[in-house]
Amino acid sequence: MSSTARSRSAIVNADDFGHSDAVNAGVVEAHQRGVVTSASLMVLRAGAAEAASYGRAHPELSVGLHVDLGEWIYVDEEWTAIYEVDAPAICDAIERQLEAFRDLVGQDPTHVDSHQHVHLREPARSDVATLGRDLGVPVRHLDARTRYCGDFYGQTETGDSSPSGITVGALVGVIRSLPAGTTEICCHPGKGEIRSSSYAAERERELEALCHPDVRSALVDAGVNLVSFRNVS
Predict the structure, then answer these.
(1) Tell me: the pLDDT tens digits for 44-78?
(2) How many Å is the Cα radius of gyration of the chain?
(3) Across the strands, what pairs with 227?
(4) pLDDT confidence bin for 79, thresholds 50/70/90
(5) So which residues are the catalytic ones?
(6) Which residues partner with 185 through β-bridges?
(7) Alpha carbons 82 and 72: distance in angstroms, whole number
């Protein structure tokens, strides 16, 4: 095995933890039976308390803050907001969500990201980057310690279904192609009926792939270490 292969690590991070009972069930199963090592918690959603309780009881699952500032769907050839936080209120919204996270989980998040990657645009970008620096934890896309990979995903850029992106073979391919260093592989597992999400049926397909024995075998064969955000320093 080459030194490059030995230096490769993967964090398999489940977004939307706390979204609902169905999403929580998928994240928990993907952690217990599959390769998920970390999850990003939506503190304002219906399943947040249940998700946080699981995180407290299972510290081996690294739990971060999934900042929720809006959600958009693709309709009539454009992205339309279902809801969004106005720009002047973004900083306060982030602070409130951090405090809610601390109340629920009993500690600071191990990493920070955001729903639909809203933190990649200003004014949220600066506020979320500052939060990550203050906490000393990685922020998705904005931290040199980790590389983000969103290739394991079951929709196109316009929200059309793309099931070929979430097969066992697709996930094995992602693992085999990982570069040196630590890569976050993002996923969105769920189990059961998913309501209030434009990413629904895809979640159970993701869960099947994340728990498939060929995926764990691929990690071993490729010499990729499975780690969590707790291992990032």
Answers:
(1) 999 999 999 999 999 999 999 999 999 988 887 78
(2) 17
(3) 11
(4) confident
(5) 15
(6) 12, 149
(7) 6
Residue that is written with structure tokens 């922020």 in the block: 139
Domain tally, the chain: 1
Domain span at 185: 3-231
How many CA atoms lie within 13 Å of 8's alpha carbon, on the beta-carbon side?
A: 20
Residue type, position 77, single letter: E
- For 183, which DSSP code? E
Q: What is the pLDDT of residues 107-118, one digit of tens each?
A: 999 999 999 999
Could you tell me the CATH number of the domain that includes residue 125? 3.20.20.370
Is residue 72 a contact partner of residue 116, using CB atoms and an 8 Å limit?
Answer: yes
* Cis amide leading into 123 (omega within 30): yes
Q: What are the residues whose beta carbons fall under 8 Å from the beta carbon of 182, sequence distance 6 or more?
A: 9, 10, 11, 145, 146, 147, 227, 231, 232
Q: Tell if the pTM clears 0.70, that is, is over it.
A: yes
Q: What is the rounded CA–CA span in Å between residue 139 and residue 131?
A: 9
Which residue intervals of 136-212 are DSSP H helices?
168-176, 201-210
CA of 145: how far to CAs of 75, 121, 181, 182, 232, in Å? Answer: 36, 21, 8, 7, 7
Query: CA 114 to CA 194: how far, in whole Å?
Result: 20
